[in-house]
Amino acid sequence: MQKFISRNNFGMSSQRLNACRSLVPLRFILLCVIGIILTSYVPHTNATSFPTLKWEEIRTEYIDLEKALWQYLNKSTTNGNKLSQIRKVFDSHNSFIKWHLQSLFEPGEYNILNHYEWKLLERDLLEIDGIFGFFKDFMKRNENFTNLEERAVLDICDTALRNDKVFSMSRIFQDIELVMVKQTLYYRAMLESANEICHTQQSPQQFVYSLYADIAMTELKGYALMEFSWMMLRIYGKGNFTEESELMRSDYQKRTERTLKLLREVMLRSSRNVWHCDPDKYVKGETYEEVTRLLQGYIENEVDMNNDETCREDCAFYISAKSEGCFKNKYCARQPKCSGRLYSCRYLDSDMWICPSPLNSTRRYEWIEYENGRILGKAGYCTRGTTKVDSWWRYLLWHCSYCFCLCDEQGLKSDRYFNLRDVVSDVEENKVVTGLRFVKKNRVFHLQIQQGELQPRGSINASNISWKPTNNYNIFDRDVKNGRDYHTLSYESRSIDLDDVHTEDISYIVTGVRFRVMGTHLNLEARFSEFNFKTGELVSPEINSFWKSNDNTDVSGNRRTKIRLNSPDISIRTIVKSLPNSKDNDYIDFVNSDMDKDAAQSTVPFIDTQGVVSKPPVPLAGVGIYHKTQNGYGGFVGPKIETYDFAPHVQLPTHG
Q1: Per the domain annotation, does 603 fall within a domain?
Q2: At which of 408, 439, 468 does a domain end?
Q3: Alpha helix locations (H) across 421-467?
Q4: Which residue, of 408, 443, 462, is where some domain finishes?
């Protein structure tokens, strides 16, 4: 049976190898060099022993199982009966398969890897998965062990141990190492997934590990099937096969060690951030929300901005003012009054036509057209009809000009409130945070958490993932206070910090979030709780938890950098998807949209309300707030997550 594990120098058929080389000879050499560098450098992370990942445990468990089975067969050769030997091997494999090898290798799961080598390898992996599926069905049909036919078992053995140009399990094992390790497809997967978060909804590190886990699962299926076949051939008296088994096990463990060396290095280099791309279609209330009437364009005559009803000054004089009256019921009587403060007034032209917005709109004007031809906003059909507004001369000495100001007005049409209450997962049920999103409830913006039950080795029980309901309070409730339960944005306090709040300690994961107010800034805090990676249990979270934030401001510490919006149009008017433009320790102000593009009627950035989650869900090592946009637009503020760092748990196998 030695022929079943024969190989060429590279483990790939010469035809396929030559095809790859002829397509990309220089690229092939460069990638091999990268692979040698990455696999030769192994940091001493094993100096601190961490529990291993799920698939390493499963692989180790099977190696121990098949060693024990071979020892059993060797001991029972002379005095054991065939039926008990068959039952032992059959039942052991059947039980292992039921517990660990039920998932399938899904075709197209890694389509972003648009490489010729991957397409060939994926085809082979699917073929192994198909053969193993037949084997699994065979095991299930014969669980009662009453009518197990020797010919049927030998047919499975022949298929598993086939070694020709059409199919060879051992050749596929070599191809896996050639493509994924020597040609560094794991490294290329990291690079490509960083640009494809919109499609993968995984951090690059998570994508690389998911790819590895699926390949490792399929390889283990093939390995287990070959070991089962040799054991059954041994029982049926077709040979000894101990040497073949030991040699295959040795090769398998050496390939695994080389693979894990590269995998660990790639995962250490991989980003763990996940954010949500713009949707194909913007839907208010589903994909985004707006802060409304925080700073909004407002037409006011200077005569109404002072108690003396004079026009001695000009518009620029009124840097900060308020509407004091309505002189002779002019245009001021035909529009809703700004009951707050007026800022940054300016003179544009004397006379204009104003198109008022519908009464139920949070806008005041659809557009404004000045007599000099300047248009604020997008002119078009006006459903309520335009109103002609003219400045006038008083006593032939003073010009009573209509000014364009910014109105900061709290009211029923102004949604500008952010929740300050703690948002914590149900730690008493061993649940942790797995995702974030903004929601608006009762006019208050909340950070809502997705939570799931933590399980061993960093996995999450996907069956009970849910969005935890937000606090259902109203800002007018008797026991609800501004500054304690919620924060109110205003002209003086309208900044939000853009931070990545995370921990480097891999024994802690996120179990809560909240906003606080630092000076005039909204600032994100995250709650971290200790957990046991191996058992998947939180460790006394009521005691072993802490809150963490970035305490820098724009005037102290490592000073924050302000993100400035350049003539921002309404966020959803962009035809090119927004991209992140902020980094940790930045901040941004909520401001009015551009005067010319939108008559300053909107508050930007908008709030991205799409759920930021990873698929599949995993624990989080951090959370953040970021800004994304395209130049000339207001963009969106949204949450992002940082997936748990699994790299330290990639441990090299120990050979017993």
Answers
A1: yes
A2: 408
A3: none
A4: 408
d(CA 16, CA 240): 34
Query: Is 291 domain-assigned?
Result: no
The bridge status of strand 521-532 relative to strand 495-498 is parallel
- How far, in Å, CA of 296 to CA of 376, rounded? 13
Please indicate, yes or no, whether residues 241 and 92 belong to a single structural domain of this protein. Answer: yes
Place of tokens 């335009």: 386
Instruction: Give the Cα separation of 525 and 110 in Å (integer).
Output: 35
Which SS3 state, helix, strand or coil, does residue 430 take?
Answer: coil
Do 232 and 151 meet the contact criterion of CB atoms below 8 Å apart? no
How far apart are the C-alpha atoms of 38 and 191, rounded to whole Å? Answer: 15
**Contact partners, residue 181, CB within 8 Å, separation at least 6:** 35, 39, 258, 259, 262
Can you list the positions of beta strands (E) in 378-490? 387-390, 392-394, 398-400, 402-408, 417-419, 423-424, 431-441, 444-455, 459-467, 486-488
Both 400 and 517 in one domain: the answer is no
Q: Is residue 364 part of a domain?
A: yes
Q: How distant is the alpha carbon of residue 40 from its chain centre?
A: 31
Q: What is the DSSP letter of 427?
A: G
Q: Could you tell me which of 334, 310, 306 has the C-alpha nearest to residue 320?
A: 306
Are residue 476 and residue 389 in the same domain, yes or no? no
Residue type, 208: V
pTM over 0.85: yes
Angle ∠(614,620,624) on CA atoms, nearest 5: 90
In the chain, the number of structural domains is 3
Query: What gap in Å lies between CA 69 and CA 88, rounded to an integer?
Result: 8
Residues 582/424, Cβ–Cβ less than 8 Å:
no
Q: How far is CA 363 from CA 226, 239, 356, 385, 403, in A?
A: 70, 85, 8, 15, 18
> Is residue 376 located within the same domain as residue 446?
no
Residue 4 lies inside a defined structural domain of this protein: no
Residue 616, amino acid: P
Question: pLDDT tens for residues 390-435?
Answer: 999 977 678 899 999 999 999 999 999 999 999 999 999 999 999 9
The CA distance from 591 to 349, in Å, is: 24
Residues 546 and 462 sit within 8 Å (Cβ to Cβ): no
Same domain, 503 and 384: no
What the block records as the tokens of 72 is 């059993």
Token pair listed for 133: 């599926």
- CA dihedral 423→429→433→438, nearest 10 degrees, is -40
Q: How distant is the alpha carbon of residue 516 from its chain centre? A: 24
> Which range marks the domain in which residue 524 is found?
416-649
Whole-angstrom distance, CA of residue 154 vs CA of residue 151: 5
Give tens-digit pLDDT for 114-164.
999 999 999 999 999 999 999 999 999 888 776 788 999 999 999 999 999
246 shares its domain with 356: no
Tokens of 472: 């259902």
Contacts of 293 by beta carbon, 8 Å cutoff, 6+ apart: 362, 407, 409, 411, 413, 414, 416, 603
CB 633 within 8 A of CB 578: yes
Instruction: Give pLDDT tens digits for 45-79.
Output: 444 568 889 889 999 999 999 999 999 998 886 55
Q: Do 181 and 139 sit in the same domain of this protein?
A: yes
Residues 386 and 475 in one domain: no
With H, G, I as helix, E, B as strand and everything else as coil, classify residue 633.
strand
